[in-house]
Protein backbone atom coordinates (compact mmCIF):
# COMPACT_ATOMS: atom_id res chain seq x y z
CA UNK A 1 0.00 0.00 0.00
CA UNK A 2 1.44 3.34 -1.05
CA UNK A 3 1.56 6.25 1.38
CA UNK A 4 1.24 9.95 0.76
CA UNK A 5 4.49 11.90 0.40
CA UNK A 6 5.59 13.66 3.53
CA UNK A 7 5.38 17.44 3.31
CA UNK A 8 8.22 19.20 5.07
CA UNK A 9 7.28 22.42 6.87
CA UNK A 10 9.21 25.40 5.50
CA UNK A 11 11.97 26.51 7.84
CA UNK A 12 15.06 28.56 7.09
CA UNK A 13 17.84 28.48 9.68
CA UNK A 14 19.77 31.67 10.18
CA UNK A 15 23.30 31.83 8.93
CA UNK A 16 26.22 32.36 11.28
CA UNK A 17 26.90 35.78 9.78
CA UNK A 18 23.37 36.90 10.60
CA UNK A 19 23.69 36.14 14.30
CA UNK A 20 25.05 39.61 15.08
CA UNK A 21 22.61 41.29 12.69
CA UNK A 22 19.54 39.88 14.40
CA UNK A 23 20.86 40.50 17.90
CA UNK A 24 19.53 43.10 20.33
CA UNK A 25 19.72 46.73 19.30
CA UNK A 26 21.95 48.66 19.61
CA UNK A 27 24.89 46.36 18.90
CA UNK A 28 28.21 46.59 20.65
CA UNK A 29 29.96 48.51 17.84
CA UNK A 30 27.40 51.35 17.86
CA UNK A 31 27.61 52.13 21.57
CA UNK A 32 30.35 54.34 22.95
CA UNK A 33 30.19 52.68 26.35
CA UNK A 34 29.56 49.09 27.27
CA UNK A 35 29.28 48.30 30.93
CA UNK A 36 30.93 44.96 31.64
CA UNK A 37 29.88 44.91 35.28
CA UNK A 38 28.09 41.71 36.18
CA UNK A 39 24.81 42.44 37.84
CA UNK A 40 23.93 40.56 41.00
CA UNK A 41 21.36 37.85 40.68
CA UNK A 42 17.81 38.43 41.71
CA UNK A 43 16.90 37.34 45.22
CA UNK A 44 13.63 35.68 46.04
CA UNK A 45 12.11 37.66 48.94
CA UNK A 46 10.28 34.56 50.14
CA UNK A 47 13.34 32.31 50.05
CA UNK A 48 13.74 30.78 53.52
CA UNK A 49 17.09 31.37 55.19
CA UNK A 50 19.21 28.37 56.18
CA UNK A 51 18.31 25.89 57.43
CA UNK A 52 15.80 25.34 54.63
CA UNK A 53 12.32 25.25 55.98
CA UNK A 54 8.84 25.81 54.75
CA UNK A 55 8.38 29.15 52.93
CA UNK A 56 6.60 31.69 55.09
CA UNK A 57 5.61 35.28 54.28
CA UNK A 58 6.93 36.40 57.67
CA UNK A 59 10.48 35.79 56.43
CA UNK A 60 10.10 38.49 53.77
CA UNK A 61 12.61 41.24 54.56
CA UNK A 62 13.26 44.78 53.34
CA UNK A 63 16.93 44.26 52.32
CA UNK A 64 15.91 41.64 49.80
CA UNK A 65 13.46 44.03 48.12
CA UNK A 66 16.05 46.82 48.23
CA UNK A 67 18.61 44.53 46.59
CA UNK A 68 16.21 43.63 43.74
CA UNK A 69 15.17 47.26 43.25
CA UNK A 70 18.79 48.44 43.09
CA UNK A 71 19.56 45.70 40.56
CA UNK A 72 16.59 46.82 38.43
CA UNK A 73 17.69 50.47 38.49
CA UNK A 74 21.26 49.56 37.51
CA UNK A 75 20.06 47.51 34.54
CA UNK A 76 17.73 50.29 33.40
CA UNK A 77 20.55 52.83 33.63
CA UNK A 78 22.82 50.65 31.53
CA UNK A 79 20.16 50.15 28.85
CA UNK A 80 19.43 53.88 28.79
CA UNK A 81 23.12 54.65 28.41
CA UNK A 82 23.47 52.14 25.59
CA UNK A 83 20.51 53.51 23.65
CA UNK A 84 21.48 57.12 24.22
CA UNK A 85 25.08 56.57 23.12
CA UNK A 86 23.89 54.80 19.95
CA UNK A 87 21.28 57.47 19.22
CA UNK A 88 23.71 60.39 19.54
CA UNK A 89 26.29 59.00 17.10
CA UNK A 90 24.57 59.81 13.76
CA UNK A 91 23.77 63.37 14.95
CA UNK A 92 26.59 64.51 17.21
CA UNK A 93 29.38 61.99 16.64
CA UNK A 94 32.51 62.42 14.52
CA UNK A 95 32.44 61.49 10.81
CA UNK A 96 33.99 58.10 11.51
CA UNK A 97 31.20 57.21 13.94
CA UNK A 98 28.55 58.45 11.52
CA UNK A 99 30.03 56.31 8.76
CA UNK A 100 30.17 53.31 11.10
CA UNK A 101 26.51 53.88 11.97
CA UNK A 102 25.48 54.02 8.30
CA UNK A 103 27.71 51.04 7.46
CA UNK A 104 26.03 48.98 10.15
CA UNK A 105 22.57 49.56 8.73
CA UNK A 106 23.79 48.92 5.20
CA UNK A 107 25.21 45.58 6.32
CA UNK A 108 22.02 44.78 8.20
CA UNK A 109 19.93 45.54 5.12
CA UNK A 110 22.22 43.50 2.86
CA UNK A 111 22.13 40.59 5.30
CA UNK A 112 18.35 40.74 5.54
CA UNK A 113 18.06 40.81 1.74
CA UNK A 114 20.45 37.85 1.45
CA UNK A 115 18.49 35.94 4.09
CA UNK A 116 15.25 36.72 2.29
CA UNK A 117 16.67 35.46 -1.00
CA UNK A 118 18.00 32.34 0.71
CA UNK A 119 14.61 31.71 2.30
CA UNK A 120 12.85 32.11 -1.05
CA UNK A 121 15.35 29.75 -2.68
CA UNK A 122 14.92 27.11 0.02
CA UNK A 123 11.13 27.47 -0.11
CA UNK A 124 11.23 27.05 -3.88
CA UNK A 125 13.39 23.93 -3.57
CA UNK A 126 11.05 22.49 -0.94
CA UNK A 127 7.98 23.19 -3.07
CA UNK A 128 9.71 21.76 -6.14
CA UNK A 129 10.60 18.60 -4.24
CA UNK A 130 7.03 18.32 -2.94
CA UNK A 131 5.64 18.80 -6.46
CA UNK A 132 7.93 16.12 -7.86
CA UNK A 133 6.95 13.76 -5.05
CA UNK A 134 3.25 14.40 -5.62
CA UNK A 135 3.57 13.92 -9.39
CA UNK A 136 5.44 10.65 -8.85
CA UNK A 137 2.85 9.53 -6.32
CA UNK A 138 0.06 10.38 -8.76
CA UNK A 139 1.81 8.40 -11.50
CA UNK A 140 2.18 5.40 -9.21
CA UNK A 141 -1.50 5.64 -8.28
CA UNK A 142 -2.53 5.72 -11.93
CA UNK A 143 -0.35 2.72 -12.72
CA UNK A 144 -1.79 0.87 -9.74
CA UNK A 145 -5.35 1.70 -10.80
CA UNK A 146 -4.63 0.56 -14.35
CA UNK A 147 -3.15 -2.70 -13.07
CA UNK A 148 -6.18 -3.22 -10.83
CA UNK A 149 -8.50 -2.73 -13.82
CA UNK A 150 -6.52 -5.28 -15.85
CA UNK A 151 -6.57 -7.78 -12.98
CA UNK A 152 -10.31 -7.31 -12.53
CA UNK A 153 -10.92 -7.73 -16.26
CA UNK A 154 -8.87 -10.93 -16.37
CA UNK A 155 -10.64 -12.30 -13.29
CA UNK A 156 -14.11 -11.58 -14.70
CA UNK A 157 -13.11 -13.01 -18.09
CA UNK A 158 -11.85 -16.20 -16.47
CA UNK A 159 -15.02 -16.39 -14.37
CA UNK A 160 -17.16 -15.97 -17.50
CA UNK A 161 -15.24 -18.62 -19.43
CA UNK A 162 -15.50 -21.09 -16.56
CA UNK A 163 -19.26 -20.50 -16.30
CA UNK A 164 -19.64 -20.93 -20.04
CA UNK A 165 -17.68 -24.19 -19.98
CA UNK A 166 -19.71 -25.46 -17.05
CA UNK A 167 -23.05 -24.57 -18.68
CA UNK A 168 -22.02 -26.11 -22.01
CA UNK A 169 -20.95 -29.28 -20.22
CA UNK A 170 -24.28 -29.38 -18.35
CA UNK A 171 -26.24 -28.93 -21.56
CA UNK A 172 -24.22 -31.61 -23.35
CA UNK A 173 -24.77 -34.04 -20.48
CA UNK A 174 -28.51 -33.30 -20.53
CA UNK A 175 -28.69 -33.98 -24.29
CA UNK A 176 -26.72 -37.20 -23.93
CA UNK A 177 -28.91 -38.39 -21.05
CA UNK A 178 -32.07 -37.58 -23.01
CA UNK A 179 -30.76 -39.35 -26.10
CA UNK A 180 -29.89 -42.47 -24.10
CA UNK A 181 -33.25 -42.38 -22.33
CA UNK A 182 -35.13 -42.10 -25.65
CA UNK A 183 -33.11 -44.97 -27.12
CA UNK A 184 -33.85 -47.11 -24.11
CA UNK A 185 -37.58 -46.33 -24.35
CA UNK A 186 -37.63 -47.24 -28.05
CA UNK A 187 -35.93 -50.54 -27.35
CA UNK A 188 -38.44 -51.30 -24.61
CA UNK A 189 -41.34 -50.50 -26.92
CA UNK A 190 -39.79 -52.61 -29.63
CA UNK A 191 -39.59 -55.79 -27.56
CA UNK A 192 -42.60 -55.15 -25.38
CA UNK A 193 -45.03 -52.97 -27.30
CA UNK A 194 -48.04 -51.50 -25.58
CA UNK A 195 -50.38 -52.55 -28.45
CA UNK A 196 -48.92 -56.01 -29.00
CA UNK A 197 -52.23 -57.44 -30.38
CA UNK A 198 -52.54 -54.65 -32.94
CA UNK A 199 -56.12 -53.89 -32.00
CA UNK A 200 -55.44 -50.25 -31.34
CA UNK A 201 -55.16 -48.05 -34.31
UniProtKB/TrEMBL annotation:
<protein>
    <submittedName>
        <fullName>Uncharacterized protein</fullName>
    </submittedName>
</protein>
Amino acid sequence: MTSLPRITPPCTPRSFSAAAVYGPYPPRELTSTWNQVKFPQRINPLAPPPPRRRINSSWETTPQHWHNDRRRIMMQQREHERYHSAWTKPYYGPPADKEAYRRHFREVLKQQMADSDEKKRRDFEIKLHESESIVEYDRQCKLQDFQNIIDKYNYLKHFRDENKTFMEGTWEKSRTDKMLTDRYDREILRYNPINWSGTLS
